[in-house]
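[job 0412] stage=fold_complex status=start
inputs:
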Amino acid sequence: MCGIVGYIGTRQAYSVLIKGLSRLEYRGYDSAGVALINKYKDLNIYKVKGKVVDLERESENKDISGCIGIGHTRWATHGEPNTVNAHPHCSQSGKLALVHNGIIENYVTLKAKLESKGYHFKSETDTEVLVQLIDYVMEKHHLELMPAVLVAMDKVEGAYAIAIIEKDRPEEIVVAKKSSPLVIGVGDNNEYFLASDATPIVEYTDKVVYLKDGEVASMSPKSGLKIENLDNVTISPEIKKVTMDIGQLEKQGFPHFMLKEIYDQPKRITDCMRGRVNPKTLDVVLSAVTDHKERLLNAKRIIIVACGTSWHAGLIGKRLLERFCKIPTEVAYASEFRYSHSPIDKDVLVIAISQSGETADTLAAVQMAREKGAFIYGICNAIGSSIARHTDTGSYIHVGPEIGVASTKAFTGQVTVLIMLALVLAKEKGTMSRESYEEIVKELLLIPERMQKMLEVDKQIKPLSKEFTFAHHFIYMGRGFGYPVALEGALKLKEISYIHAEGYPAAEMKHGPIALIDNEMPVVIIATRTCLYDKVVSNIQEIKARKGRIIAIVTEGDTVVKNIADVTIEIPTLPPCLEPLIATIPLQLLAYHVAVCKGLNVDQPRNLAKSVTVE
Ligand code: F6R
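[job 0412] stage=fold_complex status=done
writing structure:
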């Protein structure tokens, strides 16, 4: 969480930083700040509690000149969101300004040592320790900035991506990274960019360097890009090309990124299948499977690790892999898995699912499983992200940047990749008949079209959502493939509308949650014909008998549930494994419209950040 940016070159840095921070705001929006050095070597720092627009207001009529600067958008960890705790932080000497994404675990010890040397701290953050420590090392050892950072960071435990500028030497930005992402953009005119991901950089250059853990870099128009690791070994920069459609970083006429991303799904799922599902031969090919066939087919057990929405996609993956490939599959929260004593060895295949590819717990789970000999398959969206780089192989979901904090198109992209993976493995293992395989592939190819049609339900859901603006609780239910959909629907609602929502396997209701049902409790239920229909109909009757308000997702042509439920939303007849791709859409739209009706900030819900880089 937290986003950092920086620029050094011939342009005015301020506008590059502001634009970059707006792109990174999905990472946190508790406070924002910039530090700039002007041509007189004045270090100007502007910071505010709030968002990047508040920062722009704050810097109006102030000196925002300078061709070097760093910026930050914060998701608070240590210290409440206020101006003092906002980054950039300045050293006591007034010489250095620093921005940081991550958590410094030994900051209490470092702070005490620095206090004993006469350093005073203004903020409650762990970050301020870094800037004072670097300042101390420079003074004590008479070192320039980069060597001082190399010495200082060796004493630091925890996760960091930092950028530092020095008031008296506006010719250099120094950056360092460990366990938090940092990308350097190499411009054409001796200019350099830095950011937590490539989105602030792509409109200036397509040449990027992904800094690795334990590396420190100096970016200077005069002396170029120099990278060293903490063992003082010089590293030659590995320049990669990134391509990103800038249009995807804009709302393109939609009021919110979330709505745009919901509407984007037909196109993005087409992208996800492109080159992988052959409409003529009906074959599915994933290069990761082709390249690592033996290792994948020998897996005796699969463990899917993920968090949040990606974990919900994992629950669908489990059902697919067990049904099609007959491989025992578990789904673990990455945060629990990494501290569990689950026996892992070379016969285990770990599938790590992550939109951002930066989620700290998922990354740590991957590293732990790898050390124990498991083979790791990544399913990520962000190209070149940490998880994508730390896995043995994997498949990108290719749905383009997801900016709304609530995940939508990434979920359907993850499910699509899991369907393709299960189909490919089933074919290779011979655990599925060609007929069933082809039937699913044919239907999979129709999904983008069906999604497009499903989006028409927006007309039905928008007016409906008004009725639920004042609800305090919601229950979502489903069975089989419908259960993860229910969990995902509940998560979408709670994270953006702040309405308490729970997802349950429908049959579990009787074991407790049914006590919650009264005439004020809306119940959303996936009641399609494929998901143990008769049993779910009984569950609906039980809720109706207790006067719950029922919104049911049904298969087209349904008459039974229609007679019982208050509202029914129809989806087409599909193989059960493909239903989540369509049934999720009305639930995404319901959450979206309820939040809009409540006047909430849909794209930036309170307390959340898109990329959870803290544990
Ligand atoms: C919910 C949401 C989160 C993420 C979770 C994992 O809408 O976005 O629950 O799914 O933080 O993030 P990734 O997939 O980036 O690892």
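[job 0412] summary: Residues 307-310, 354-356, 359, 362, 406-407, 491, 495, 612 surround fructose -6-phosphate (CB under 6 Å).
[job 0412] exit 0
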